[in-house]
Amino acid sequence: MNSTNQKNISSKSLSKAVGMRSDYCGQISSHDIGRQVSVCGWVGRRREHGEHLAFIDLRDHTGIIQCVVQGTHGLHSEYVVKITGTVSPRPEGTSNKDLATGEVEITNCEVEVLSKADSPPFSISDRIEVEENVRLRYRYLDLRRNKMQHHLRMRAKVNSLLRHSFESQGFTEVETPLLWTPTPEGAREFVVPSRMKPGSFYVLPQSPQIAKQLLMVGGLDRYYQIARCLRDEDLRADRQFEFTQLDIEASFVTQQDILDFVTQAVIDVVSEITGISIESIPILTWEQSMELYGTDKPDLRFDMQIVDLTAIFKDTQIKAFQANSIKGIKVPSSCPLSRSKLDNLVAKAKEMGAKGLAWFKAVDSEDGVVLESPLAKHLGELESKALIEAFGIEPLETILIVADEISLTRNILGNLRNELGEPDPEKPSLCFAWVVDFPLFEGFDEDGNLISGHHPFTMPNLEDFHLIDSDPLSVRSQSYDLVLNGWELGSGSIRIHRDDIQSKIFSVLGISSEQAQERFGFLLSAFSFGAPPHGGFALGLDRTIALLAGEDNIREVIAFPKTSSGFDPMTQAPKPISPQQLKLLSLVPIKDEALD
Ligand code: ASP
Fold first, then answer.
1. Whose C-alpha lies nearest to ligand 1, atom 7?
2. Which of 72, 137, 290, 433 could form a disulfide with 569 if both were Cys (CB 3.0 to 4.6 A apart)?
3. Domain 432-537, second-level architecture
4. Beta strands in 295-426 (DSSP E)
């Protein structure tokens, strides 16, 4: 999303200045002319006129005000000062239209230096690009820049809107522990050694999943939390070791209720932050999403739906089209495909596992639209006609076709669609969608056990449960994802609260009852005391806020993120601890060979 779509997260709504100052820099205007004011902040740009006069831009979190200072006072960039003076109109012809305070300046200034400052490693300006490592090393300086100020304030506003929305929907905020025990999300975990119980460890939560289910057993009814989660996974632009999610759980609800709660919160947040009003969020089944968009996180800002062509080619003579699944997409004329671009796409499709990628270009002829391609002469007349009809193709448009197993045709065309599609200006800039009815299982592991698609507490769709032994991969789950512009923002499910179903799921997942007892015994035991039917959802806040802020990288909306190798250039963490600390924690470094 374009950041210009955002409403201004205005600092004008801040409370009135108190303490050492009477006003904030960015809020002084011509209404204040003649007033005596005190402002505090950092020295920005300085223009000195000899030894007697200097123009100083004083900056705080609300903006900049120009101060006309007699004498230089030895001021340098980023000195922290308090300036007391009179608000005056700027002399004729010197006002600055680009500055909110550009009509006025502070004159007759008394300057008090509160802190001196070394020269900063980069200048505090939005116009200067600074290498990310340097920004992270001096994050506190980077935070002084407008963009970071805006993003962090917007983040706080989103949190506050979410709190308000869920509270008004009857949810109660509960904090769950950070020092915890393994959770079932399936990622690698961070562990914390126990000093009091040598050789034992806490596990930092991958999510509050189990704790929130226990809250339901505890009768909390509707819980939410803006929760910090930790997963020791390789980092990418959209991942950090620690991330924040809006986590909810509710009792005595159906899947539709959870979708409604979250939809309401999304509507509340988006309208307040962007001014865009969303009436509802469309729901696609996983099957529809895969069939039409080749992915479970479709970007609905453009159409380019995948069309199934299997029936058209069921008796084809074209060898390359003799396959279980034949699908295609139509690339619009606004995305012209030259021969070299097409060769490139063919190579990409092959890299993704396709045997090939067929293409047909529509051109005008005396007989109407015809298809051109090296393969065109092999197309039967009926096939050609049916293809033209299936896509309603117009001259200059191109059809791309993949023939293979269904999972491949979907996947490859889904990727090509994402690569070639451009947001349609007629469609909303924020296209949310719910994807529901995910398969309960992803496939089989090497021991022949089923692999859970979500986590082992996900409730199957009870209509399909009888297929669990005969055709387990066709069993749908009561789970759902929220998607925005091709990104998965969050996911959730209705949980299993019935003993019989849970034991069956553990058994097909290859989790023995001893293992289940050892890993989740406390949850199962809690359930034995009366578990309400319940379900929940978690929304990845870093990614949601990055999308709302028009940023590709979540580090832009996190105050103190780590680099992609998990390093913090500012604190230098992670770093070794002293032998004394190791001893206190009963930790002994061991060599790799000792593990063999
Ligand atoms: N615990 C899940 C997650 O973190 C979300 C949920 O099912 O509520 O992805």
1. 492
2. 137
3. 2-Layer Sandwich (3.30)
4. 307-308, 325-331, 358-365, 368-372, 398-404
For residue 596, the model assigns a pLDDT of 64
Which residue reads 């021969």 in tokens? 339
How far apart are the C-alpha atoms of 53 and 400, rounded to whole Å?
69
CATH fold of 16-119 reads OB fold (Dihydrolipoamide Acetyltransferase, E2P) (2.40.50)
**pLDDT, tens only, 56-88:** 999 999 999 999 999 878 899 999 999 999 999
Indicate whether residue 441 lines ligand 1 (CB < 6 A). Answer: no
Q: Beta partners for 37?
A: 85
Which residue's entry shows tokens 């913090």? 568
Say if strands 432-436 and 283-285 run parallel, antiparallel, or are unpaired. parallel
Q: Which atom, in ligand 1's list, is nearest to the CA of 536?
A: 8
Q: How confident is the model at residue 129 (pLDDT cuts 50, 70, 90)?
A: very high
Residue 209 Cβ contacting ligand 1 at under 6 Å: yes
CATH of domain 146-177+186-273+539-580: 3.30.930.10
**Is-same-fold flag (16-119; 303-420)?**
no
Query: Ligand 1: which residue has its CA nearest to atom 8?
Result: 537
Q: According to the model, what pLDDT value does residue 239 have? A: 85
The pLDDT mean for the chain works out to 93
**Helices of type H across 314-440:** 339-351, 381-391, 406-420
Residues in the chain: 596
CA distances from residue 513 to 371, 499, 526, 531 in whole angstroms, order as listed: 61, 12, 16, 19
Res 14 pLDDT > 90: no
The mean pLDDT of 556-576, rounded to a whole number, is 95
pLDDT digits (tens, 9 = 90+) for 352-361: 999 999 999 9
Residues 6+ apart with CB under 8 A from 451: 441, 442, 443, 444, 445, 509
Q: Judge if the beta carbon of residue 527 lies within 6 A of ligand 1.
A: no
Nearest to 407, CA basis, from 473, 341, 330? 473
| CATH T-level topology, domain 303-420 | Gyrase A; domain 2 (3.30.1360)
For the chain, which residues make up each domain, given as ranges?
A: 16-119, 146-177+186-273+539-580, 303-420, 432-537
Measured over the CA atoms of residue 166, residue 171, residue 177 and residue 183, the dihedral's sign is negative
